[in-house]
Amino acid sequence: MGELSNKMVVRRDETGTKQTQVNTDLEVVVRQNSKLAHLVTKGGKRIALVTLAGLIWIQPVIGIGPIAGPALTAEAAASQTVKLSEEMITSGAKLVKYEYTVTRSGKPVKVLTDVIEVDLTNPYVQLDVMTGKGGQVTTRQSVEGMAKETGAVAGVNGDFFATGGQGVPMGPAVSKGTVVTSPAQLQGMYAFAVRNDGTPLIDRFGFSGTVFAEDGSTFPLAGINQESYMTEPDKAYSHVNKMFIYTSAWKSEERPAASSTTPTEVLVQGGVITQISIKAAIPGPVPADGYILRAHGTAADYVAAHLQVGQRVDAVYQLQSLTDGQLVDPADLKMMIGGHTLLVDQGKASAFTRSTTSISGGSAVARTAVGYSKDGKTAYIITAEKNSNSTGLTLKELQGFMTGIGVWKGLNLDGGGSTTMVTRPLAETTPQLTFTTSNGAAGQRAVANGLGVFTTAPQGSLLGLKVSGSSTLFIGQTVPYALKGYDTYYNPIDTSGIQASWQASNGNVVWTGSGFKGVKAGTAKITATSGQAKTSMDVKVLGGTDLESLTPGTTFAPLQAGTSVTVAVTAKLKDGRTVDVPAESVKWTFSGMKASVQGGVLTVQSVNNGAKFAYATPVYDGFNGTPIVLSASTETIWESFENMTYPISFTGLPAEAKGTVSIVQGTGEHANSKVLKLDYDLTGGTGSKFAYAQFNGTSGRAIPDNATTLTVDVLGDASLNWVRAELSDADGKPVYIDLARPMDYTGWKTLTADLTANNIKFPAKLKRLYVVNVEEGQDERALTGSVSFDNVRFTAPAAGGSNPDFPSAKAVMVIGQKSMTVNGKKQNLEVAPLLKDNTTYVPIKYVLDVFGGNAAWNGAAKKITVTRGTMVLELTVGQKAFLLNGVSSKAEVAPIIVNGRTLVPLRLVSEQLGIGVNWEQKTKSITLES
To answer: Where's the Copper amine oxidase-like N-terminal domain (predicted)?
Structure first.
C-alpha cells in the first residue's frame, strides 16, 4: 500500500484479534508479523502502532465497522465525470467529490459536485429528517445549525417550502416512524424514504386519515401540520371545510397563518378531549402530551355535533402510494423527506413529473438531490455547487450526473440558495460547510428541514491519525495545526494524550509553537512525530504568482484626515478559487496621503497638499491589487421625503405586477421622519417581476455630477428579492445599481452602493428605486411584501465636474510614427501607434502623460493599473477581460506589448478614460482631446 499524504493508520491483527482501546494509561500492542512503532503520550506511556517495513498507510473506505475494504483511487466514474477525492465521514458514509463536465453553447464547462454515499446495509449509520429548530416546523434553521443540534455527522437541505410563508415543508416528513408533516395535495411531487429494514423507497404519496368519535361517527383527516396553500388540481383553499391535526412538532401559535378560514379547535390529551374552542383558536402552542384537531366549515360542524369535552376521540392515519395505491404505515419507516420532480428512474433520466419552470429547471443553479442504487444498498445524497468555483447545473445536466454515478432512482430536492451540504471531516468532531453556497457572503439560508446522516457506532479503538489544518496559507499567516485521530468506525477519538513534535521539510513555513507560519511562497511537508510514529501533510504557501486578482472590499472612501474604513481583501487564485486574505499578509502602498492599515482598518493620517485624490493599494508578495480610491468629497441629501415637490408613482412589470407607493410616517428609528413606502404584489404574470417607485414621472431627477456613492436607508422585509436603483446617464442609457442582493434582513439598515465601477456619463438622473424578483429561483423568494426608503444621499468629489488635476489638451498621433503633437508642440514616442487586425492601438503611458493619471506596471502578472481620479482601470496583456474599479468587464480586443511598452485599444481609451477620440482614415491620424 502506497503512502497517502495525511493519514497514519493502525491496522488490526489478521487473525481478527480485537485491539485494546487507546488511552493515556494503556499500551496497545498489535501483532501482525510486523515491526512496532510507538506513540509517546503526555503521561509518558508508549502506544504501539503496527508497521510493515515502516508505516502502513491506507485510504479509508466504507465498511460496516472495524473491517475495512480495499482502497479506492481517483478515477473517472463516467465519460464526463471525474472523481476528485473521497473521505470517510463515519462507518457506512463517505464524501466523494467530483468534477462533472457539461457542454454549453458548444463549450465544455466544469462543475463541482459533492456526493455523500451511505451504505444502507450498515447497522451503524442512519438517515433521518432534521427539522428546523428543536425538531419543530415553522422555525427554520441552517443545515449546519440543524446538524449540530441533532448530532448529525453530515446533512443537506431538504424539501421545498414557501419562502414567504411559515417555513413548512411542502411534502411529507417522517422521523423514526412519526409523521412530522403530511404530504400536501400537489401534483407530481415525490418523496424519499427508508423502511425499517433499510430498503429505500421513492414514490408519490397521499395522506388518508380518519377521526373516530365516541358516538361512532367519523370524519376524514386532511393532513398533519400543514401550512395553508392552494390544492391541485382544483386550486382550492387547503383548509376550507377540512380537519387537520397539529402536534407539538408545530411551533407557531397560528395553525396555520393566512388560511382564509376561521378555526374551530379541539385539544386532545391522552386520547380524551380536554378543550373545545368554537370559531376561535385555542391560545398557546400545542402541548407535548397532546394534539389539536383544527377544523373549519363542515369539519367544524362535525365537531359541534359529535365531540364533547371528556369524550374519547381517536385519530388513525396512513400514507398511500399514488402510483400503485399501496398503503404505507409511517411506523414502518425510519424516515421520509419530501421533494419535487422525479429525476431518475430505472437508471435513466426520467420525464419531469412536475413543471420545473418555477424552480429554474433550465438554468444552471445550485442543486440538491437524493437517490439510491439499483440493488437498494446505497443512498446518494447529491449537491451541485454554484459559487466562484462552479456554475451549478440545469436539471437535465443533473440527471446526467446522477445516472453516471450509478443512481437507479432519484428525485430533486430544494436547490438554488437553499442548496447546502455539511460534512464532518475525518477525525474532526463537528460537521463543517462542504462548499460555499450560492449566497456567497450571505452564508447559509435558513430552511424548513434537511436530510441528516447519523452514526450509532460504539467507541472503537484507534485506527489512524491525521494532521488537521488548512492545506494552503499566505505569507505572514499563522495557521493552527493539530494531531487528531479516528477510530475503527471512522469517528473521532480523543488524542489529547498523545504528545507530538512538529517539523517542516523546508523554510517555506516555520513552527510557532501553536501553528505554522507562512514565510515564503512554495510547498512544504509538515510532519507530526510521536516516538517512532509520524504523519505528514503537504501544504502550499501561496505566492503572488498564484493570484489572478487582489481586491479590497471597499473601493471608495472620503479623502480627509481621520477617515477610517474596513479594507478586507479577497484574492482570486489562478485555479479559480476565491479566498479571504488575512490582514497580516497584505502590505499597502499609499499615494496622495499618509495612511496606515492596522487589523484590516485603513486610517488616513493626513492628506498631501493640493491632493484631490489618493490611492491605497494592497500588495501581496509583489502582486499589486486594485487600489482604493479616496477623494475629497461631500455628501448631499438628495431626498428626505419631508417636503416633496414632485410626483412619485408606482409602476410594475409585467402588467400583472401590482403595488402602491406612498409617503408615510416612518417606524422604529425613523419614527420621526417621513419615508417612501413601496408595497408590492408580484403573484401575477410570468418571468422576472418588478415593482418600481418612479421619481418625477418618467423623467427622474438629477444627481450630483461625478457622484461616487449612493446611500439609502432601507426598511427590509427579508423577502430575498433584490432591491435596486435605476439611474439614467447623459445619453439616456440606464444604469442599474444593486442596493441589496438579496434583501435578507428586516428592520432599518443603511445601504451604500459604489457608483464608480459603472462608468456613468454625467449629467445623470435617479429614475427609480425598485424591487425585483428575477425569474431564476423565483420560487425561493417572496412575491408579496413591503419595503421603505429614507434619506437618499449621494457622495461626490469636492472638485465637482471640472477637475484642475486633469489638464485639457489636444494630442494628435499618426499610425506608424514615433512622434505626436500636444497642443501644437511635437513630442517623441518610444513606440508608435499601430493598426492591427482592424484595431487601433495607442501607447497608454503617453496618453496619461498628456491627459493626467498614473500607470503602474506589474511585470510578473503582465498587468498595468491605471489610476485617474476616481477611476481605477486594470488591464492584463493578452486578456480581453479588465477590471474597472474592481468590477470585471470585457473588451473586444486585448492590450499588447510592443518594444517594452503597453499599447491598448483606442476604443478602451475612449470609453474608459473619458477622453474624446477622432480617427481620420485618410491620414491615419488619431486626435485625442479633453
So the answer is: 821-927
